From TrEMBL:
Domain of life: Bacteria
Gene3D superfamilies for the chain: P-loop containing nucleotide triphosphate hydrolases
Designated gene of the protein: repA
Record Pfam families: AAA_31 (PF13614)
InterPro entries: AAA_dom (IPR025669), DNA_Partitioning_ATPase (IPR050678), P-loop_NTPase (IPR027417), Plasmid_partition_RepA (IPR017818)
Domain AAA: 127-279
Protein name, entry field: Plasmid partitioning protein RepA
SUPFAM superfamilies linked: P-loop containing nucleoside triphosphate hydrolases (SSF52540)
Length: 421
């Protein structure tokens, strides 16, 4: 074992590390990328081919082509050989046009909640690929025409990085959910921390290290004020009520914070638990279930009833060719029954490659990661999202149809031959 350094040597190390931090910070500042608040990556979203738009909207490519020829709806961009493409904003314009011109199918084209429909708040429990699940769920919902708010409750800002928001240093400027739920006079409206994303209809409340401040403050109050755990969670509920009118769905991506997670559970109308189909992961997942029941018990002890419309499990990072995983999935289904989603998200090189590129598969075309791998990954992602959207539809008293629509589709990123142009 090496000899420990003298105290004065340790002080020099501290000074050297501080100098390193200052020098790195100065370098980042000179490059224009340093900030102590989450800042966006100025990337843009690609346009979608006519075939992709046809699949997203559930209509034929020939129908969309004729609309364009007749000058109805938004004007697509014409590319090589006259191929048409649409931005996501234009896709949403198409939704509005189709909903008004085909009123019997208005809900299909414009699925936003109507008067009397409750805001859907889905808490994604921290677990295997839970951040990726939150990311693709939020983007998938936006592609289907929902108004979505994604909230990163992870102090590491994992979901925020996927959206291209990065934070450096220790942010102290009220740029996360902390601003809306803090206890002191610096509390602000949640609207002050909502950021737009490159997806039309999808906003983000970034996460960063300042979320740990809420955990620390709540912990002190928990110890000193007669275990008032539930007083912390109700702050999340109150904050979300401020923006209830502007969104159809809120996706809460939970981190490892206990008080923030309790708030997510109390605010939620539905809970999604991700699980990898391996026995050690199943064992780990059970601790999340016990934590959930513990948090709910504390909240109800304070006199507030917690009612969720659904509590579902999603198998992620699944290799359907692995016999041992098949057995684990079957065993899990035997325990939780229909609460386990039928669709599973496959372990995919395409998803991994997209992450390495700082993008999602929805942001890329199939050629960017390999067509076969892309199509398989998109099929599993879209199938899982479709099940969740059908559950939402049932909560709103609507007939489910997203699963059947997904089963008829090829992929969101592949135009069929008859739909090109």
């Amino acid at each position: 074992m090496p000899h420990s350094e003298k105290l004065d040597d340790q002080e020099r190390i501290v000074e050297r590390v501080q100098r390193h931090g200052n020098d790195i910070w100065a370098c980042l500042t000179a490059q224009g990328v340093a900030t102590r608040a989450p800042s966006p990556d100025p990337r843009t979203l690609r346009s979608f081919s006519l075939g992709e738009v046809a699949e997203i909207l559930g209509v034929s490519g020939s129908y969309l082509r004729q609309l364009s020829i007749d000058g109805l709806g938004p004007t697509p961009e014409l590319g090589t050989a006259g191929r048409r493409s649409y931005t996501l904003g234009q896709i949403n314009e198409l939704r509005d046009y189709l909903a008004s011109s085909r009123p019997k199918e208005a809900l299909k084209f414009c699925p936003r909640r109507r008067e009397g429909d409750k805001l859907q708040i889905i808490s994604v429990v921290a677990g295997p690929a839970s951040t990726t699940t939150s990311f693709y769920l939020a983007q998938g919902l936006a592609l289907q025409g929902f108004r979505v708010l994604a909230i990163d409750l992870d102090s590491h800002g994992s979901l925020s990085r996927m959206f291209g928001y990065y934070s450096f240093g220790y942010p102290v400027h009220n740029e996360t959910m902390y601003a809306a739920i803090r206890y002191d006079e610096h509390q602000e409206s949640i609207q002050s921390v909502i950021q737009h994303t490159l997806f039309d209809g999808l906003d983000l409340v970034p996460g960063s290290a300042e979320l740990s401040c809420f955990e620390e403050e709540s912990s002190r109050r928990f110890r000193s004020e007669n275990l008032r755990y539930s007083d912390a969670s109700i702050r999340m509920v109150s904050a979300l009520k401020e923006v209830e009118a502007y969104y159809d769905v809120v996706v809460l991506s939970c981190g490892d914070g206990g008080f923030l997670t309790a708030g997510a559970y109390e605010a939620a109308t539905g809970v999604l638990v991700t699980v990898r189909p391996e026995l050690p992961e199943i064992v780990s997942m059970t601790s999340s279930l016990y934590s959930f029941t513990h948090f709910v018990a504390l909240i109800e002890r304070a006199g507030r009833i917690v009612n969720h419309d659904f509590f579902k499990y999603l198998v992620t990072m699944h290799d359907p060719r692995d016999v041992s995983q098949q057995k684990v999935v079957a065993s899990l289904r035997g325990c939780v029954g229909d609460d386990l989603l039928t669709a599973t998200v496959w372990q995919s090189d395409a998803i991994r490659q997209a992450w390495n590129k700082g993008r999602s598969l929805y942001e890329l075309s199939s050629g960017a990661v390999g067509r076969s791998s892309y199509e398989q990954a998109m099929k599993s992602l879209n199938s899982a999202n479709a099940e969740i959207m059908d559950i939402m539809s049932e909560v709103w008293g609507r007939a489910p149809f997203y699963v059947s629509l997904a089963s008829r589709s090829t992929t969101a990123g592949k135009a069929s031959s008859e739909s090109r142009g």
